[in-house]
Design brief:
The chain is an all-alpha fold and about 325 residues long. The protein starts with a helix and ends with a helix. It is built from 14 helices and no strands. The protein has one domain.
């Protein structure tokens, strides 16, 4: 908690748009007020969807209520706020689980992260293909190639992601199809190294927990991840409208998923994402508008309402839990 608040204070102390941010809240029109209200209301929808996803993942390990799931999520955000790429979040989210189930909870959380990454890649690939088709319409061959590459990439991603339950069943039961037997046997060359053998033994409980996901649960996780990503994109769009960024609606809705994809693959620490999101937003969306400050403020505002507010809430819940 001390690290989280320390980094938050450092980030806010180096924020360079305070004057423009304050001016944005003066003389707010009804339309801008509605856009701001919608973005704030979507906070509950965002974390409600994540709560449903976490609840589905824990359905066999530790059945829980939606309220309990959201509480553990908020605590996880606090733990992940000061770690690279929020790798501390799975550990923090599993704190409320009973003894003996926390390691499996971490593994299940990683499956949820995979679902969110899959959603970001799907949105990013589709949006990139649509954006290139919109702005490179005269270069038909180039557009066709981009669409073909995008389709192949989506197919490969779907194959890797949706075969997870099949691979898990093979690991748990020991019954392999010829293809998976070949993949499984490839590890034999590494087994002569003692460190790899020890690592494999220690990872088996995590692998079994993560790979025991059923197809219905995986489909639930995928659906909630896709919906949650859509909420993120709409929040960004609402904040662009609130900060009076003059950009075509279709162009904005295509660029926002590309922007998020660029942010997600950029190594960072959560507290430093404010500057990263602002700079990437200016580089992508700022190219199509003169109000680059508004683009940066929109990206930063989405970060504030989706991470800082939940982090503060999670720290309070963690403090009460420890007491």
């Amino acid at each position: 908690m001390l690290c989280a608040y320390g980094y938050l204070a450092y980030t806010l102390a180096h924020f360079e748009y305070y004057q423009q941010f304050a001016q944005s809240f003066s003389h707010i029109s009804l339309d801008r007020y509605l856009f701001l209200s919608a973005a704030l209301l979507f906070i509950a929808l965002n974390w409600g969807l994540e709560g449903l996803k976490w609840q589905a993942l824990l359905s066999h390990l530790h059945p829980s209520s939606l309220g309990w799931s959201i509480k553990s999520i908020l605590i996880g955000i606090t733990a992940g706020f000061f770690t690279p790429n929020r790798i501390g979040e799975p550990v923090g989210r599993s704190i409320l689980l009973p003894d003996g189930k926390r390691s499996q909870g971490v593994a299940l959380m990683l499956v949820g992260v995979m679902g969110q990454i899959f959603a970001s890649l799907v949105y990013g690939v589709v949006a990139s293909t649509g954006f290139l088709s919109l702005h490179l319409g005269t270069y038909v061959s180039t557009v066709d190639i981009c669409q073909m590459v995008g389709g192949v990439l989506l197919g490969l991603l779907s194959l890797c992601y949706f075969t997870l339950p099949s691979w898990g069943k093979c690991v748990v039961t020991g019954q392999f199809t010829p293809f998976w037997q070949f993949v499984y046997d490839m590890r034999s060359g590494l087994l002569r190294y003692s460190w790899f053998t020890d690592l494999l033994k220690s990872a088996i409980p995590y692998l079994k927990a993560a790979l025991s996901i059923s197809y219905p649960t995986l489909l639930q996780v995928t659906l909630y991840s896709l919906l949650r990503y859509g909420v993120y994109c709409l929040q960004y769009f609402f904040m662009l409208r609130f900060f009076d960024v003059p950009i075509d609606t279709l162009t904005a809705l295509l660029l926002i998923p590309i922007n998020y994809l660029a942010v997600s693959i950029t190594p960072s620490i959560a507290f430093a994402e404010m500057g990263i999101r602002g700079s990437i937003g200016i580089a992508l969306i700022g190219t199509f508008t003169s109000n680059t400050v508004g683009v940066a403020l929109a990206a930063i505002s989405v970060w504030l309402i989706n991470y800082v507010i939940p982090m503060i809430t999670g720290s309070v819940l963690l403090w009460r839990e420890n007491k």
